TrEMBL record:
Taxonomic classification: Bacteria, Pseudomonadati, Myxococcota, Myxococcia, Myxococcales
Protein name per UniProt: Tetratricopeptide repeat protein
Keywords tagged on the record: Membrane, Transmembrane, Transmembrane helix
Superkingdom assignment: Bacteria
Species in which this protein is naturally found: Corallococcus interemptor
Membrane-spanning ranges: 177-197, 227-250
Length: 258
């Protein structure tokens, strides 16, 4: 009897375990994703939104292709919309439609949720359209080339000495008034110098005189000569300043009149 039981286990139960083990090894990877998505759909239909969200989160981790990631993201958007998390739902819709622009909602939903889903699809289409449009090369408008006229050097008129003309322009004329004032200043300065020397001589004579009357006379002469010399020196200075002033003022006006 024991041998029969052992034979039964070897012939019957053994192959069953071997078959189960072989099935587990050869099971395709997307079967786990499908199972998680089926669980999320069942919980969503039973209004177990929190558990459905956890199931679809597992499905997102098990996704291997863009189509599977798109399905999981869109279904996640449905569950989030059912939980009242509208902005997060739109973000999940956007992620799913980016991977599969032609995807559709996997279940019947309210018009509000369907409107959000389609509005996200339109936003992505509007952004994608300029990118997909072919870029045309810019049209370059050819402009006629305008050649500048040749520059001709100016030819001086016959009989005109350009160097002499330049020298004449560069020479500044001294006005007559400046010469007169300058001469007056020189004469006044010379006379003042002479009187100043005479005044100093009278002072020396006063120091050497013995009589008080002679001393007073020399000092009076020295004072008068000193006063006149100072006046002449002032006149010479004023004349020099006037000569310089009239040179610049009248000299500029003379050049401007040419």
């Amino acid at each position: 009897m024991l041998g029969g039981l052992l034979g039964f286990w070897v012939l019957g139960v053994g192959p069953a375990f071997g078959q189960a083990a072989g099935t587990a090894v050869s099971r395709p990877a997307n079967a786990y994703f499908d199972a998680a998505m089926a669980e999320a759909a069942r919980l969503y239909e039973d209004l177990e939104s929190e558990q459905a969200l956890a199931a679809v989160t597992r499905a997102k981790r098990l996704a291997r292709t863009e189509e599977e990631r798109s399905r999981a993201a869109i279904y996640e958007g449905l569950v989030l919309a059912d939980l009242g998390r509208r902005e997060e739902a739109r973000a999940s819709f956007r992620a799913g439609l980016l991977l599969a622009p032609g995807a559709k909602l996997p279940a019947k939903v309210s018009p509000k949720v369907e409107g959000d889903f389609e509005s996200v699809r339109q936003e992505l289409a509007a952004v994608r359209k300029p990118v997909d449009a072919p870029v045309r090369p810019p049209v370059v408008e050819e402009k006629p080339v305008v050649l500048a006229p040749p520059q001709v050097a100016a030819v001086p008129a016959p009989g005109v000495d350009l160097k002499a003309d330049a020298r004449e322009r560069g020479t500044r004329r001294v006005p007559t008034v400046s010469w007169v004032l300058l001469g007056t200043g020189v004469v006044a300065g010379g006379v003042g110098s002479i009187l100043g020397l005479q005044s100093r001589g009278n002072v020396n004579n006063a120091r050497e005189a013995d009589l008080s009357a002679d001393v007073s006379g020399h000092l009076d002469d020295a004072r008068g000569q000193a006063v006149v010399a100072n006046v002449l020196f002032g006149t010479a200075l004023a004349a020099a300043v006037g000569a310089v002033t009239t040179y610049f003022l009248m000299g500029e006006s003379t050049e401007g009149g040419r």
